[in-house]
Amino acid sequence: MQWTSILAIYFLVWVMTAFIMLPFGVKTADEANVAKVPGQADSAPVNFRPGRLAIRATLIAIVLTSLFVVNYEFGWVTASDLDLLPKPDSPLVRDNAN
After folding, report:
1. Burial class of residue 17 (count of CB atoms within 10 Å of its CB; 0-12, 13-18, 19+)
2. How many CB atoms are closer than 10 A to CB 72?
3. pLDDT in tens, the chain (98 residues)
4. What SS3 string covers 15-30?
5. Backbone angles phi, psi at 41, to 5 degrees
6. 3-class secondary-structure state, position 5
7. Environment class of residue 57 by beta-carbon count within 10 Å: exposed (0-12), middle (13-18) or buried (19+)?
8. N or C: which end of the chain has fewer CB within 10 A?
9. Nearest residue to 68 via CA among 10, 4, 14, 3
10. What are the boundaries of each domain within the chain?
């Protein structure tokens, strides 16, 4: 696998990880017992820390991308392993056709 492909996969995994982690560890003004700013949405976070989110997303993306690349090299899980539908010539398909 080329290093540019690995970099592209890492970037995609990082973005997905960051978006998935956005709601975790964030409190609203009501939960933190802080006064709201006039016009503030009820769901607006009061303690958003983008640096901490970036560090966590980076670490998780490194692990997930490493697992992906190692699986690609050694072929532990392939596309045929994920095919859950029966093959057209299997007995299950022939029995249901009658």
Report:
1. buried
2. 15
3. 899 999 999 999 999 999 999 988 888 888 889 888 899 898 888 888 899 999 999 999 999 999 999 999 998 998 888 888 767 776 655 555 55
4. HHHHHHHCCCCCCEHH
5. -70, 150
6. helix
7. buried
8. C
9. 10
10. 3-97
Which residue in this structure is represented by tokens 């607006």? 44
Helix axes 3-21 and 50-74, enclosed angle (nearest 10): 140
Place of tokens 């592209």: 8
* Count of residues making up the chain: 98
Backbone angles phi, psi at 49, to 5 degrees: -125, 95
Q: What are phi and psi of 40, to 5 degrees?
A: -75, 140
Tokens of 88: 């057209």
pTM of the shown model? 0.74
